[in-house]
Each structure stands twice: as structure tokens, then as C-alpha cells.
Amino acid sequence: MKKYNVAVVGANGAVGEEVLRILEEIDFPLAKLVPLASSRSAGTEIEFNGEKLIIQELTNEIFEQEEVEIAIFSAGGSVSAEFAPAAVKAGAV
Fold first, then answer.
1. pLDDT of residue 17
2. Domain Semialdehyde dehydrogenase NAD-binding: where (predicted)?
């Protein structure tokens, strides 16, 4: 089964945490999980599938750098409007 590089924008917010819980619960085929948030939250640790992951800063370049294939936006509408085009440009859906 193919595995995907998935970014969760707003990974440390209430909706982002629920998205992560669901991805874990359904055992989504992940090659890599890329938790993203604002510069204020970058560097914070989260736990996913028993592993500690570091939240990275949301930038226009991060989607290409991390080879993101699927981007889930769980931050506010203005954040999505600003950064979704960069995700699409990098080839993410």
C-alpha cells in the first residue's frame, strides 16, 4: 500500500489535535507526518503513534522541502488562504 507525506497545519490546535487522533485511529498510511504551526508554536513537541514529533514553522517553502503530498489545513481561514496555494504549487492536495 502506498504511504503518503502528510502535513497538518495547525497541528497543536483543537482541530489539528483531532485530525492527528483520527489519522492515528484509522492507521492512515503515512510515510511521514509533518506537523506545522505558527512561529510561536514551532519547536513544540507533540506525540503521534507513540513518537515525539517537533512542530515546524509554517512557511510557503515547507511543503516543497518536506515533499508534502497531502496537506490538511486545520488553522483559521486566513491562514489557509495564505498558505494553501504554496501547498498546491508544491504538488500537495
1. 97
2. 5-92
Give the strand pairing for 30-37 and 56-57: parallel
- What global pTM score does this model have? 0.95
Least Cα distance to 72 among 27, 63, 64 occurs for 63
**Domain limits, the chain:** 4-89
Q: What are 46's strand-pairing partners?
A: 53
Q: What integer pLDDT is reported at residue 9 of this predicted model? A: 98
- CATH number of 4-89, picked from 3.40.50.720, 3.30.565.10, 1.10.10.10, 3.40.1280.10: 3.40.50.720
**What is the model's pLDDT at position 76?**
86
Query: Is 2 within 8 Å of 28 (Cβ atoms)?
Result: no
The tally of CA atoms less than 13 A away on the side-chain side of residue 18 is 5
